[in-house]
């Protein structure tokens, strides 16, 4: 059975499991992807230090520009971590070439969740990357944090 996952950093406390509509505030490093087995990203994440950034303003994403987000400052550390995660997944057979909003199109942001958002100028300390199962036990209504790797 293949897993449908994504890689995120939570910017607020996240429960181990939550509903599709109840995401904690988070930055998505890699959008949803399919894998046969849970990837082990400890080697690729080990050399990465926590990343400090800040909210630079509000933006509207999505095909209809109807998703409000807090856009983050795009730093070299953010770009390097994002690209290293993509490279590691590609080595594991994930088709990252067809992914949208990655590499040069990657715009780090935190989407507004049920009215909760981050204010412009708010500092963020990104100190871990979490693997989230988008369909635990085949249920697309739930999300589960499978594993979290600290940035050292």
Summarize the structure.
With about 150 residues, this protein is mostly beta strands.
Which segments are poorly predicted (pLDDT under 50) over 5 or more consecutive residues? none
Give the helix level as a range of percent. Answer: 10-25%
Distance between the termini: 32 Å
Number of strands: 9
Helix segment tally: 2
Structural class: mainly beta
| Strand-residue proportion | 35-45%
Overview of the molecule:
With about 150 residues, this protein is mostly beta strands. About 15% of the residues lie in helices and about 40% in strands. The relative contact order is 0.30.
Keywords for this structure?
152 residues, 9 strands, 5-stranded antiparallel sheet, mainly beta
Q: What is this structure's SSE topology?
A:
Elements: E1 3-10, E2 17-19, E3 26-35, H1 42-45, E4 51-61, E5 67-72, H2 76-91, E6 109-111, E7 123-126, E8 128-133, E9 142-150
Antiparallel strand pairs: 1-3, 1-8, 2-9, 4-5, 4-7, 5-6, 8-9
